[in-house]
């Protein structure tokens, strides 16, 4: 049986009701016509920054929150991803999509201190096999009931402390453990070269050279690294593409490359 389609969303899409409506409309058409399971991962960092920019709450590097150090800033950074999930859940109902909002399980918290490299991620998964299998059973139950898990990038560790993981990394882990297919939706139409032009295909062996040369920068680095790890691990291609064109979304879900395809 084929694994689920894992779709990571974020950026300006989370500010646009029209974009969210288009997304769920196309997801509904795709899931109904193909019987494919779907997992949705939200990347709400930009949404969090938008909220904080409207107040006096902006802060950086709040990826972990001890209750004894609890304050408004790190609490909001921890719970906003789940708030975004609830908003997505409300929109999904308009398109008869049965969704279920979920925090991350505690073992994801260990990713906070790990580098995003193939060997490191492989070791992480091997060391947490028992926890991974439990998590697979939980998510598989919802998939078997035709629910789409809406998974945010926050969770609670074993001591009950909030943590937040980069959503591209979350989508990467989910794709690997479910042997799925990953699509990372972004605000730009593809990975771009030094002249601002789309790079149609990137081989895994090219990723670090593109990053080291400064061609790939900022948030696209971790997207590209995560895509590379999935491609190497599963021997499958990963697509990094834009959500802007509503006519492209269904083609993208069906496997057409409209952005940048990362291959092993």
From TrEMBL:
- E.C. numbers: 2.7.2.8
Query: Residue limits of the Aspartate/glutamate/uridylate kinase domain?
Result: 5-238
Q: Which GO terms of the molecular function aspect are on file?
A: acetylglutamate kinase activity; ATP binding
- Which reaction is the catalytic activity of this chain? N-acetyl-L-glutamate + ATP = N-acetyl-L-glutamyl 5-phosphate + ADP
Write down the Pfam families for this protein, in alphabetical order. Answer: AA_kinase
Q: Which UniProt keywords apply?
A: Amino-acid biosynthesis, Arginine biosynthesis, ATP-binding, Kinase, Nucleotide-binding, Transferase
A single cellular component GO annotation = cytoplasm
Q: Which pathway does it take part in? A: Amino-acid biosynthesis; L-arginine biosynthesis; N(2)-acetyl-L-ornithine from L-glutamate: step 2/4
Q: InterPro entries of this UniProt entry?
A: AceGlu_kinase-like_sf, AcgluKinase_fam, Asp/Glu/Uridylate_kinase
Name one process (GO BP) from the record.
Answer: L-arginine biosynthetic process
- Kindly indicate whether the keyword Nucleotide-binding belongs to this entry: yes
Q: What is this protein called?
A: Acetylglutamate kinase
Originating organism:
Buchnera aphidicola (Cinara cf. splendens/pseudotsugae 3390)
Protein's gene:
argB
């Amino acid at each position: 049986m084929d694994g689920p389609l894992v779709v990571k969303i974020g950026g300006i899409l989370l500010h646009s009701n029209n974009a969210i409506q288009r997304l769920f409309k196309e997801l509904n058409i795709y899931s109904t016509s193909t019987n494919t399971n779907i997992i949705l991962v939200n990347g709400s960092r930009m949404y969090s920054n938008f909220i904080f920019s409207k107040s006096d709450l902006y802060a950086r590097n709040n990826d972990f929150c001890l209750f004894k150090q609890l304050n408004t800033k790190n609490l909001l950074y921890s719970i906003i991803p789940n708030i975004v999930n609830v908003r997505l859940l409300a929109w999904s109902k308009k398109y008869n999509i049965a969704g279920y909002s979920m925090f991350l399980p505690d073992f994801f918290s260990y990713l906070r201190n790990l580098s995003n490299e193939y060997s490191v991620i492989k070791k992480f998964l091997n060391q947490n096999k028992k926890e991974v299998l439990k998590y697979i059973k939980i998510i598989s139950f919802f998939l078997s009931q035709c629910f789409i898990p809406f998974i945010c990038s926050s969770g609670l560790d074993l001591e009950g402390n909030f943590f937040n993981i980069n959503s591209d990394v979350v989508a990467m882990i989910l794709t690997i453990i479910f042997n799925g297919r990953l699509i990372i939706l972004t605000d730009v139409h593809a990975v771009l070269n030094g002249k601002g032009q789309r790079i149609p295909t990137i081989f895994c062996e090219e990723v670090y050279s593109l990053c080291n040369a400064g061609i790939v920068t900022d948030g696209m680095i971790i997207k590209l690294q995560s895509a590379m790890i999935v491609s190497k691990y599963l021997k499958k291609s990963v697509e990094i593409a834009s959500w802007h064109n509503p006519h492209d979304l269904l083609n993208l879900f069906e496997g057409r490359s409209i952005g940048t395809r990362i291959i092993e």
